[in-house]
Amino acid sequence: MVAELSIITLAQAIQQSVAPVFLLAGIGGILNVLTGRLARIIDRSRSLYQRLEHVTDEREEGIREELRTLTRRGRVVHRAIGFSTGSALLVCLVIAMLFINAVMGWHSDTPIAVLFILAMVFLIISLTGFLREIQLATRVMLNGP
Question: Which of 51, 68, 69 is CA-nearest to residue 142?
């Protein structure tokens, strides 16, 4: 009977941990998009720096302005990646604590709730940064280089 109870407890722990795992998968998708955008910003910056070496003075200011915008975009994406990663780590802690809570009977409801709320705050900040970076990129597209 003890072995059966242990298996049931383990199964319940796994069930409790499944929902945050889906959240973790979503955060992974967001990180994939953010790193792709950062890579494109870096590639464009490198291209502009190469063009800057062979450009006339009248075109140089336009390239430098685009480089400043790319720098701002890069910083915003970098911060968004940091907050997404922080959110993912907090979700991992929530999963571990849920599992420990279910298997060992450790009652850690408040710390789990606090960690989950922090994970959501980090994710909100990350998504806000993502939106900001898109606004910066669109502004350049609409206003021209």
Answer: 69
